[in-house]
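I hope you will forgive my troubling you with a question about protein structure. The matter concerns a single protein, recorded as an amino acid sequence and a row of backbone structure tokens. Please examine both parts with care and let me know of anything in them that strikes you as inconsistent. Here, with my thanks, is the record as I have it:
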Amino acid sequence: MLGGKNKVLRRYLSNNNRFKSDNPDYGRAFLLNAALAYMSVICMIFGILHIIKTDHPIFIYFYFAVMILSIVVIIFFHKTDNVKLTSLFAVILATFIMGSILHLVYSDYSGLFWAAAYLPFVYLMLEGKKGVRATLILGVSGLLYIIFFHRDWQPGIFNYMSIINIAGAGACLMLLIVYYERSQKRAEKSLVAKNNQLHLMSITDRLTGLYNRHKLDETLNELVCKSKTCKKPFSIIIADIDRFKSINDTYGHLTGDKVLVEISNLLLACVRQTDIAGRWGGEEFLIICPDTDYAGITDIAKRIEAFISGYNFGCCQGVALSCGVATHNSGETVDSLLQRADTNMYQTKQSRRNT
């Protein structure tokens, strides 16, 4: 039962799930629906209390009119999903309520507590520079109105209406604080996600999804620096697709791209979780294997070559990969290591052409 109620409430607050959590207006839609519903309920309560306790027609008409207007704005919002216009309507409605409270305050000053929630609400609804300007203008206008039209403050009364005003304004202010806090967390989470996405894009090859040359260079330099203090060896494989130009010429560049993507996926399936596979450039790949000696890297290279040559690439048959390996020697530079692996790769490629 409780889960069903939460589901209905969630649908109402998100305009029947049309505002998703990744929508930039999701937070404002949530606040609009919550504030308008809160406004209509509070006005209904005040209207009923005035019927029961005071029988002042002007207050009764006022509160029920505001309640109806709040419901009309809710219906408008759920039909149009127009956050900007609905926010403006909500601010106008809240300003009408606040202005009426200031004008009809008499000796019950507890209604002024709503100003503590009204001004933050205006800012959050209009946002940015508009929100700041509107908050300042309306706040100063309200203050000037009090100064000029309520010069002689009479002793205030404290009754059940005062309690409801204070409690209602306090609850509304808490709602705005919770909304603001969640908005900040959501913005922070979104920023972290975007930064992570940008970082991933900066180190990933767009076509294959493997690490790009920048990331591979960075990793090699880190391992070479680490090797000065840690004596564990690391090794690399440079792999090149045999006769890749003829694949592009015969089957077209789209097929060539598909071959690159498939080989990338096969490489990821062959290497260990600790290994780093990336696209070195064109049809060349680089695999970095930490804590791996020459015998270990040779076995990995042979396994990769066998796996690729035995794979069915569809219309493009006979795809093969030539691998060259090298194990880092103490004090060796990155360029020297790459040169040795590259030389070994071309020797492998040449030996295949001769057979």
About this structure: Strands lie at 234-241, 276-281, 284-290, 321-327.
